[in-house]
């Protein structure tokens, strides 16, 4: 890579460095949380041809965000980092799924499935609307303080991905990744049909958290629905029906809670709250 792309600048968190400068940093750094090269424009910068030089693994099926063409959100990244670099706990943007292909080195992953009944991983604090996530300052800090507790949680999945291996990150899964040595990878977000309803729900009901779209896209949900209706109307209708069933289920549960309906359909006394006037 250095011989071919050494003079090209890539984004490493808050800085843009030529690849050769970043390589020097990797060799010399002693940081607890090393800068992580994570560039969304590597295809344009390097002239790599998607479909010839690399391509999405066929096992993940069609990416439905492809209906957006040039209006799709950011979706692919070149990732380079030294030992101990990585990403703290997060979910994929816009409720998408992702694949991560390791080209060099090895990565440790720890993941937790999407579940409304299970709390976030230990040490991860999420705001009520899930727009803000607070984690320890460094991956090392989290590993020292919470790793053992996290491994005992239901559904925890962990493992090491080595050169030539590809990892699937399903929609909504919490995950943390750390490079065990100098590592190079390509990752890409996608929308499989199985999780289309989740993406539609996110775009529609969490517009303030939608990310990666160009500024001229004012309503990502409406744009996506319009394009899907043109190209995949049956798939869209099925997903919209699933979305309606999900929200109807949530509404029934809320009504039961408010009205005091038990699981057998009988009406108990509804919840009320008031102050006793005799209490000063």
Automatic annotation (TrEMBL):
Limits of the JmjC domain: 27-207
SUPFAM superfamilies: Clavaminate synthase-like
Gene3D superfamilies referenced in this protein's UniProt entry, alphabetically: Cupin
InterPro entries: JmjC_dom (IPR003347), JMJD6_ArgDemeth/LysHydrox (IPR050910)
Ranges in a coiled coil: none
GO molecular function: cis-regulatory region sequence-specific DNA binding
GO cellular component: nucleus
Alphabetized Pfam families for the sequence: JmjC (PF02373)
Family matches, as PANTHER family: ARGININE DEMETHYLASE AND LYSYL-HYDROXYLASE JMJD, JMJC DOMAIN-CONTAINING PROTEIN 8
Name by which UniProt lists this protein: JmjC domain-containing protein
The species this protein was found in: Alectoria fallacina
């Amino acid at each position: 890579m250095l011989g071919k792309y050494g003079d090209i600048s890539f984004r490493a968190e808050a800085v843009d460095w030529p690849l050769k400068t970043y390589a020097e940093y990797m060799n010399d750094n002693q940081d607890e949380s090393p800068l992580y090269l994570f560039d969304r424009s590597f295809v344009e910068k390097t002239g790599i041809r998607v479909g010839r030089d690399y391509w999405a693994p066929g096992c993940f099926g069609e990416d439905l965000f492809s209906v957006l063409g040039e209006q799709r959100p950011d979706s692919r990244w070149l990732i380079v980092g030294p030992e101990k670099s990585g990403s703290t706990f997060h979910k994929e943007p816009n409720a998408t799924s992702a694949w991560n292909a390791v080209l060099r080195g090895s990565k440790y992953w720890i993941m937790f499935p999407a579940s409304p009944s299970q709390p976030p991983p230990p040490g991860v604090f999420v705001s009520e609307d899930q727009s803000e996530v607070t984690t320890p300052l460094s991956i090392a800090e989290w590993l020292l303080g919470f790793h053992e507790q996290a491994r005992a949680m239901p559904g925890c999945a962990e493992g090491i991905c080595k050169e030539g291996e590809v990892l699937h990150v399903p929609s909504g899964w919490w995950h943390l990744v750390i490079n065990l040595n100098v590592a190079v990878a390509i990752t890409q977000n996608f929308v499989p049909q199985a999780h289309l309803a989740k993406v539609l729900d996110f775009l529609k009901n969490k517009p303030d958290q939608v990310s990666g779209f160009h500024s001229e896209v004012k309503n990502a949900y409406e744009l996506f629905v319009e394009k899907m209706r043109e190209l995949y109307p049956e798939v869209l209708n099925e997903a919209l029906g699933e979305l309606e069933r999900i929200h109807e289920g949530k509404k029934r549960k809320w009504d039961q809670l408010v009205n005091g309906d038990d699981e057998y359909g009988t009406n108990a006394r509804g919840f009320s709250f008031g102050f006793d006037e005799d209490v000063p």
